[in-house]
Amino acid sequence: MSMLKVEDMHVYYGSIHAIKGISFEVNEHEIVTLIGANGAGKSTSLNTVAGLLKPRTGSVSFEGKNISNMPASKIVSLGMALCPEGRRVFQQMTVRENLEMGGYTRPAGEIADSLADVFDRFPRLKERHKQIAGTLSGGEQQMLAMGRALMSKPKLLMLDEPSMGLAPLLVEQIFDIIQELNAAGTTILLVEQNAQMALSIANRAYVLETGRVVKSGNAHELMNDDDVRKAYLG
Q1: pLDDT at residue 63 greater than cutoff 80
Q2: What is the DSSP string of the chain?
Q3: Which of 28, 87, 121, 199 lies at a CB distance of 3.0 to 4.6 Å from 223, suitable for a disulfide?
């Protein structure tokens, strides 16, 4: 069943037409990835779905409900969370405080359980729960950003460039965590510059070029598609 459905979405930055009528969907329990070059519209698509930008025309629906003009905070409470590009943790707050911020839509009585779940998944964050987030390494900040998104107990987790700037070993670790989250029941929408890695774990993929979907299909088949290989897999 389709959990997220984007239909003919157009998004503008001022007079710049950034997203030109894209349509895509994410079914329950899937990992779906959007790949494409820088400036293709991947992050803009996620930010629009998350309610941080508004589409000028077209629609975004989540579990059958139109959320195109809903405020971002309301979208989070429906069960969708965005882990933004560049990690964007609250630099001056502790690890624990960052995580608690992520749980603001949950009843107060559930925060302790959510924290325990995140610490279970990211033991490094548990070790450093009193540490100021800005002093963590890049990999630890990425784990914190993911943990903060998970605090809202999302049905759909959207990840924007989770491997950016990380050492190869950490990239593998982050992708293992994404697969574990998915196996545990979280649906994933992934935007990732590392197309090889993204396609290797996704069920389906959409290829974006200058704000349009130019190809879509089974991730494994796209990985073996000559055009995709030439353009994104090096």
Answers
A1: yes
A2: -EEEEEEEEEEEETTEEEEEEEEEEEETT-EEEEE-STTSSHHHHHHHHTTSS--SEEEEEETTEE-TT--HHHHHHHTEEEE-TT----TTSBHHHHHHHHTTTS-GGGHHHHHHHHHHH-HHHHHTTTSBGGGS-HHHHHHHHHHHHHTT--SEEEEESTTTT--HHHHHHHHHHHHHHHHTT-EEEEE-S-HHHHHHH-SEEEEEETTEEEEEEEHHHHHT-HHHIIIII-
A3: 199
